[in-house]
Amino acid sequence: MTPPPQLGRLGDVALDRRSFLGMLAAGAAVVGVPSLLSACSPGTPTATATGAAAAGDVIPTYIPVTYAEPDYPSVDGSVPGYETIPAELVRSVQTAPGTGLVFTAMTPLWGTIPPTKGNKYYEAVNGLLGSDITFQITDGNVYGDKLATVLASPKDVPDWVCVPTWNLPPRFGAEIVGNVFQDLTPFLAGDLVEDYPNLANIPSDAWKFCVFNGRLYGLPFPGETITDAIFYRKDVLDGLGITPDVKNAQDLLDLAKELTGGNVWGAEDLWNTAAIIHGVVPKWKLEGDTLVHRVETDEYRAALEWNAALFASGSVHPDAVAGQTGDAKMRFQGGQSLIANDGVGGWHEAMRDNLASNPSYWQQPFDPFAADGGTPVLWKGNPANIFSFLKKTDDEARIKELLALANVLAAPFGTVEFDTITNGVEGVHYTRGDDGLPVPTDLAATELQPTYIFLVDPPLAESHVQYPGYVKAVSEWKAKASGFAQDPLFYAQQIVEPAQYASIGQPFVDLEKDISRGRKSMKDLDAAIETWRSSGGEELRAFYQDILDSQA
C-alpha cells in the first residue's frame, strides 16, 4: 500500500501541512481497506501481543497545551478548528536545544526531493533546533524497499528513521525494533515526558500505537479519529433543487438512483460506504465470548448485499463498474458522479483543486447514519499511521538531544515552530496576501517539501482558512461524527501476526468486487469463509484469543 504520488505544493501546504493525512485516510482507512480483510501482508503492522497489555505503564502522561484558542474546540476527540491564523505566534521552546551536532534522518517523500545544499528552509528549521538534521529522502512509492535494505544492516541505519505502518518489514516487532532502535521508555514513560512539553501534548492513543513488546519505541504522527466520509456534490444538488435527507441505507440507494440520468451517475463504487453505514468492524468483534472475524459477521454480509443492490440499480458510473477506481475522484469532482467515498482529508484537497476553476464548488459529507436508521457506529482509525524511531545507542545524552529536537518539531498550531515548519521563512518562502495568508514564492516550490513532519508531528489542527466556510463545516461535521466513534477490538495495539496467515484474506478482496458487480453470489461468500477457516482462519482466531486472554 502506498499513498498517492504527490503531496500538495506549498500553495496549499502553507496552510495544508496535513494534506498527507487526507492521503492516509483515503489509502489507509480502517473501514474497507483490503489489507485489513486479510491477516495482513508481512509488511503490514498491527502490535505485539505483550506490548498492548503493558502500554499503559510505558506511554507518556498526556499533558495538553494550547497556544491558540480554537474557534471550534475538540469534541469527543475531533480535530479543533481555527478560522484565523494568530497574529502573534508563540515560541514554545525559547532556546534552541541542540548542541550543534549533525544527525541523519531517513524519510519518504511523495513529491520532488528538495536540494539540501543552501536550502534556506532547512537552515531556518535547523536554526530552531540548534543542531542539523541531514535528510536521506527516498521516493515514498519505493520507500518500503529502501527501508528493508537499510534495516538489514544495522550499522547503516541513520540516527532517525521514519517508518510508515504499511512499510513495516516482516518480523519488525520480533527481531528488528529492539535490536536496532532505542527503547524510549526510560526517557518518556509517565511523567518523564514533562521534560518535553510538546511531546506530552500528543494524545495517549497515538503513543500506545508506538509500543512494541511492552516498551515504547516510536514517536508518532497522530491521525484522525474518523478517517472516512461519504461525500455528495452539494453544489450540483443545490442547482437541481435537491436537498438530500438520507437517514438510512435505502434513502442513499434512492438518492443515487434519482441522481442518475444522461451522462451523470449517482455514485461511484460505494463499498467503503457500505462498510461504514453497516458498522462493519475493521477486523474482529466479540460475540459473547467468541471472536468473530469481520468476514463472518452479519454486518459484512449486509454491506455486500447493499453494494450489490447499488450496482444492480444502474446508479454506479460505468468506469467504476469496470473497476477503474483510480479515477473516481476525477469523475466525482468533474460532476460525472455525485456520491463518493473519500478520506476526510480529501475534502480540503478537493477545495484546493477545484475552487479556482469552479468558485461554487462544494462537496459535503452526509451526516453519519446507520443502514437501519438507528444509531451509527463509526470505528476509530489508527491513532497513528506513521511513526519514527531513534537508532539504538549507549550515549544517553545523544538520545536526550534527539528527543529535545523532537519536542521542537512537535510544536502545535499557534507557535513559531509550527509556522516555520509549515511555511518556511517570510519574505523567502512566502509573502502575505491582502488577507494576511501566506502566499508561496517560487523558491518555496523548490526548497520546501514536507520532511520534518515525518519524524514527529503535533496533534491535528484544522486551519484551512483559505477556503471560505470550510473550517466551520469540517469542524462541525467532525464533532458530530466523533460522537459516534467507538474503539474497535485491539484498538491502538501493535499486533504482529504470524507470516503464514498473510494471504488467507486476499480472496475476499476480489470477492467483494465480484459480488458487488453481480458476478458472484452470497453462496460464494459462504464458501470463501469456509476456505478461510480451514486455511488458517481458526488458527488466527486462536492467536488473537491468546492475546485477549493475556490481557484479561
TrEMBL record:
Record-linked InterPro entries: Bact_solute-bd_prot1, TAT_signal, TAT_signal_bac_arc
Coiled-coil annotated spans: none
SUPFAM superfamilies named among the record's database cross-references: Periplasmic binding protein-like II
Recorded superkingdom: Bacteria
Family: Belongs to the bacterial solute-binding protein 1 family.
Cross-referenced PANTHER family: ARABINOSE-BINDING PROTEIN-RELATED, SN-GLYCEROL-3-PHOSPHATE-BINDING PERIPLASMIC PROTEIN UGPB
NCBIfam families documented for this protein: TAT_signal_seq (TIGR01409)
The protein, known as: Extracellular solute-binding protein family 1
